[in-house]
Design goal:
This protein has 324 residues and is an alpha+beta fold. It is built from 10 helices and 10 strands. It has a single domain, classed as Catalase HpII,  Chain A, domain 1, CATH 2.40.180. Strands 1, 2, 3, 4, 5, 6, 7, 8, 9 and 10 form a 10-stranded antiparallel β-sheet that branches. The chain binds protoporphyrin IX containing FE.
Length: 324
Amino acid sequence: EDQPAGTSQTRIARDIVAGLDKVFGGPHKGYRAAHSKGILLDGTFRPSKDATSLTRAEHLTEGDVAVTVRFSNFAGVPHVGDNTGDANPKGMAIKFLLPDGGSTDIVAHSFDGFAAQTPDEFRRFVQALGSSDPQDFADHVAAHPAAKRFIEAPKPAPVSFATEVFYGVNAFSFTNAAGESRFGKYRLVPVAGVAHLSAVEAAEKDPDYLSQDMAERLEDGPVQFRLLVQLAGEGDPITQAAFPWPEDREQVELGVLSLTALAADSVARQRELVFTPLSLVGGIAPSDDPMLITRTRSYRMSYSRRLTAATDSHQPRHGKDAGK
Ligand code: HEM
């Protein structure tokens, strides 16, 4: 390791998880450190004919493949209201269940970019947010353009998880059967169209309106998303994803995701599932964006601790000694 211990990737990932705990009043036993409240759906992905031009990855180029999808609110708060500010951006994590028993993931959120340009900058963002002195966060935001853009961007609540666009943010390298490689970023575009609530409409919603909406919507048929890859243009940054690439970049449609049912035993299944951006298969490789490594390490840390502690510390306790 060239770096001093205090800046190693593992240390940064650990500090971020600890920092998220501080911001969100955690750790909340049995729950994710971020995106704690979610719903799980089962469905299938059907590749488009164009997908082979970009990648040889089997799950994107052969027949239908089963998927498990988790939609989530941003906050590391297990029972956060779907209609509160902390609930945005929304998350969408996809696990493709491969015929050989393996899997590969996409982890996306409803903001085209991120609050920090590097893992260490995100560590400092989270630590400033958790500081007891609010001036620390104000100072951080004033000095960091990515934080400023993320904080100031409108993040309206969606009408439904089925009416939101989700972005993979960090770039990957896609390689086709001829060995040609292109850098690109995932995005998921809702077939139902994009629709958000006004602040007044959001305030009138039930704190669990998104799961209720999904149950009702599925009675009328599958909820669908187009899976696209936005290709990098000349000079677009590959290793730093806080700011979006220009919107006019070419996009390739990889196929359509059809979600058909809410999962049974959802809370237990969510706890036992982990999605990471580096769960990959041949034909898709990580870019050199260091955030992919930090994300994956911190997601795994958050995962291993929720497996060993399956009770929600915020459930009502019975008896005056129960909290000891
Ligand atoms: C260095 C940057 C980042 C760090 C350290 C970080 C940290 C975390 C952590 C600790 C979790 C909990 C994971 C678990 O317990 O399974 C999480 C979940 C999540 N993050 Fe990030 N995050 C980062 C960037 C991003 C970006 C850029 C996106 C969007 C593309 C994103 C989207 C999500 C989503 C959707 C989840 C929920 C995944 C699930 O449903 O299992 N995060 N993040």
